[in-house]
């Protein structure tokens, strides 16, 4: 650190230099991210509560109330009237916490999950010294329930810590057959649903299958307001049916305003709780429905246009995630990046991956397709 500080003007000048180096959602050129521009109301709320810290909740009764209300609304969205939970730093912390709760409740050694699960599940497995038991996908890229059955038989019912299902997979946007999965898994084994992304999409699509707490066997769900919730980072919710689970991981925090601490993080960036409360109240179900419908229209449009160019989807998009088959996605991705288009890729099967977030407008897609056509004709 320098001995004598710079002037605010100079700091700002240097900040702007770095700001210009970064990609920005407002350019419409980020086509592979699961985050988006937070709405202005979320930014305002975030700044207003910038010093709030739910790590010491006694000082922040207002923020505590907002967290409870957000958890309740998210639980309702996920089919549960009186949910318990916390707003954490994101899907990774929520998924790791879910596995931690499962280990404390159930023991066992294996975490069973579909091959489409996000890598945060593997982080949890490593951290908690558990063993991975991945389940193959069907040709529709969802968990193969027959293989799940075989997997359970292989290791024995008592050896399973938790089963994870995904509602809105990172690479394909697919939704596992949660109801069938819950029928197959042994009694007492916690079933965690990772709806980090899908949690703010599926409820607004009239999705026909059950994937949330409406399925009795589901014990916990991850939903991230900092993805399709249009809130600020860091905001990821872990929802539970009861507080009992959290009690198992609680530790004493004698010098704070609350005697027990329930979350992995100590100091918590709670401005995002206020941002999430603000944006959910501002949008209402109607607002999110409109946003999701527009994202889906754009997803179908891009899919149709890319199919015409010889890049058909891997699987028909369920939500606003599109994987389009491509021979060499890596080099396409690199060349697109040189043209300042930021797409993502899938390795198996080789595909380009697009996430049609609200910052991606139809005009951006038309511009992208013009550049993409030029690129593949070279
Ligand atoms: N579960 C699912 C289904 C996810 O897709 C993700 C993140 C997580 C859990 C973990 O969430 P956090 O990243 O909040 O801990 N999926 C995105 C991904 O890995 C995250 C992301 C977001 C990546 C924005 C890039 C980006 O620009 O692709």
Low-confidence stretches: none
Structural class: alpha/beta
State the helix count: 11
Order of secondary-structure elements: HHHEHEHEHEHEEEHEEHEHEEH
User: What is the strand arrangement across the widest sheet?
Assistant: 1-7-6-5-4-2-3
Span of the ends, CA to CA: 49 Å
Mean pLDDT: 97
The small-molecule ligands in this entry are:
ligand 0PR
Q: Which key terms come to mind for this protein?
A:
single chain, about 375 residues, alpha/beta, seven-stranded mixed β-sheet, three-stranded antiparallel β-sheet, binds ligand 0PR
Short description:
This protein is α/β, with parallel strands linked by helices and 378 residues long.
Question: How would you describe the overall organization of this protein?
Answer:
The protein is of the alpha/beta class. It contains eleven helices and twelve strands. A seven-stranded mixed sheet has the order 1-7-6-5-4-2-3, sandwiched between helices. Strands 10-12-11 form a three-stranded antiparallel sheet. A two-stranded antiparallel sheet has the order 8-9. Strand 4, helix 7 and strand 5 form a beta-alpha-beta unit. The radius of gyration is 22 Å and the shape is globular. The mean pLDDT is 97. The site of ligand 0PR has 16 residues, from helix 4.
